[in-house]
Amino acid sequence: MFDILEHIDLTSFTTLWYWIFLCLTWNSVTHRTMGVPFDMIIRADGDEARFGADLDALAHAQAHRLTYMFGRFGVVLIGVAAFVVGALAAAAFVLGIQLAQAMFVVALPVIIVWANEVRLAYIVRRGAGLYGTTLRRRIVRFRFYHQLIGLWSLVMAALGTSYYAFAMMSRTVP
Fold first, then answer.
1. Which helix (H) or strand (E) holds 37?
2. Where are the membrane-spanning stretches (predicted)?
3. Which of 4, 63, 88, 107 has the fewest CB atoms in 10 Å of its CB?
4. Residue 107: phi, psi to the nearest 5?
């Protein structure tokens, strides 16, 4: 019988597919902060009269959506996220499974970014006067934080790759 797992390389850090997945993940996560695309912020900065109201409406609608969803399902989402990250951490660092290490390096920062987006949604929803330039600056600042978290994720993945490569070299050298 044909077993597909024989043909899939599970040494995650050293495959090109893992790095493509990691870059695409952080590209998509940092492009939209709280559901607001970055190009929309750029357009609103250039022509506030034309695009500013659309950006404000989208940001406030997304803030209401996120706070509503988190209000209804927040405890469940936190529980599931904690379980997934805990299981990945246990499999990665207790059992030493490299695929779990690679998934942990992606999952933990993405969960931190999602929590940060929920925090921003509550700030936008509660914040009186968060319109126009003030709102755009706040969203851009949170986008910068998300980019820093993504950079940390990439550095941790690179360190995991280096560790794995050095471990493999030390095993092959007599």
1. strand 36-37
2. 16-34, 73-97, 103-124, 144-166
3. 4
4. -70, -45
Which tokens in the block code for residue 161? Answer: 């790759």
DSSP string, 26-46: HHHHHHEETTEEHHHHHHHHH
CB contact at 8 A, 15 and 9: yes
- pLDDT tens column, 100-141: 888 999 999 999 999 999 999 999 998 777 888 899 999 999
- Which phi-psi region, left, alpha or beta, contains residue 129 (left: φ > 0; alpha: ψ -120 to 50)? left
Supply the pTM of this predicted model: 0.85
Convert the pLDDT of each residue in 8-65 to its tens digit: 555 677 788 888 899 999 999 998 988 899 999 999 888 888 888 899 999 999 999 9
Q: State both tokens at 102.
A: 């690679």
Q: In the beta sheet, which residues pair with residue 37?
A: 32
- Token pair listed for 75: 């405890």
The region, left, alpha or beta by phi > 0 then psi within -120 to 50, assigned to residue 93 is alpha
Q: What share of the chain is helix, strand, coil (3-state, %, to 5)?
A: 85, 0, 10
Question: CB neighbours of 161 closer than 8 A, spacing ≥ 6?
Answer: 13, 14
